[in-house]
Amino acid sequence: MDLGIKGRKAIVCAASKGLGRGCAEALAQEGVDLVICARGEEALNQTAEEIRQASGVSVTTIACDVTTEEGRRQILEACPEPDILVNNAGGPPPGDFKNFSLDDWRKAVEGNMLTPIALIRATVYGMMDRGFGRIVNITSGSVKAPIASLELSNGARTGLTGAVAIVARKAARNNVTINALLPGPFDTDRLRTNVGIAAEKEGISADEMAARRAANNPTGRFGTRQEFGAACAFLCSAHAGYITGQNLLLDGGAYPGSM
Ligand code: NAD
């Protein structure tokens, strides 16, 4: 299927690895020119080069922290009129409600709620004026079912989900959509780090813990960044203008509800 977005311009945040990279790769396969950011310059440049080689699209790199105003300024300077925006950043650390300080909460809200809101504010009205726009927020399955050790994430991402629900409907009149992708367990560095921490607590190897977690999923495995990217590219496609304000769970069926 031709997704109808060849020649469009996308900002993909936090895209040197993992889910952000999966989204950047899938959009590039559709002929979308990219501005991608990440904190580490080396991995970012390597990813950019691999995407250029594989797809032939233009890839501009901005080595920055997207959760800072300066980082976002640089990204928007490189792509002031994006057609597509994929919001993503590292997730807050695990822990226990009792031990989180207000500063921990501020950081989580800054990174996983206010950062995407700032980028949406800066881009959505231009998209509406131009009559096309696709915004995808990478949140988490924790929006649907809170995860015990990830209370910072549960809070900040659910806040973002509520915050954009109305603008997602208002923008739709001008063929601009805002949706969220809610990952369950995807095989990325972040997942491997969390698995390692859990394995250490239980006194087993990281491989053993990973195998147990994968076996617990209805599919018997973790998701791949390519599967995640494909879903993102469809939501960004010309065919997806009637999907807005939605929160799509990609978790291999792990969420136990019927709906
Ligand atoms: P990852 O660690 O594999 O990759 C993270 C990417 O984001 C890297 O490219 C890193 O350089 C970049 N990055 C991180 N913080 C940044 C910042 N402040 N500014 C710019 N770039 C930044 O992580 P991932 O697994 O792809 O996760 C992406 C998001 O999805 C995270 O918020 C994570 O919490 C969430 N998530 C992941 C899973 C999963 O199973 N992988 C599940 C639920 C939610």
Could you walk me through the main structural features you see in this protein, from its secondary elements to its overall organization?
Helix content is 47%, strand content 14%. It starts with 8 loop residues before the first strand and ends in a 9-residue tail after the last strand. The chain is built from nine helices and seven strands, in the order E-H-E-H-E-H-E-H-E-H-H-E-H-H-H-E. The chain has a seven-stranded parallel beta sheet, with helices on both faces. The longest helix has 29 residues. Helix 1 packs across helix 9 and helix 4 packs parallel to helix 5. With 259 residues, the chain is α/β, with parallel strands linked by helices. The chain binds nicotinamide-adenine-dinucleotide. Nicotinamide-adenine-dinucleotide binds next to helix 1, strand 2 and helix 7.
The class by helix and strand makeup works out as alpha/beta
Mean pLDDT: 97
Helical coverage, percent range: 40-55%
Query: Number of helix segments?
Result: 9
Please give the largest β-sheet.
7 strands, parallel
Low-confidence blocks of residues: none
H and E string: EHEHEHEHEHHEHHHE
Q: Note the overall shape.
A: globular
The hetero compounds bound to this protein are: nicotinamide-adenine-dinucleotide
Query: What amount of the residues lies in strands?
Result: 5-15%
Please list the strands of the largest sheet in the order they lie side by side. 3-2-1-4-5-6-7
> What is the end-to-end distance?
27 Å
What is the strand tally? 7
* Rg, alpha carbons: 18 Å
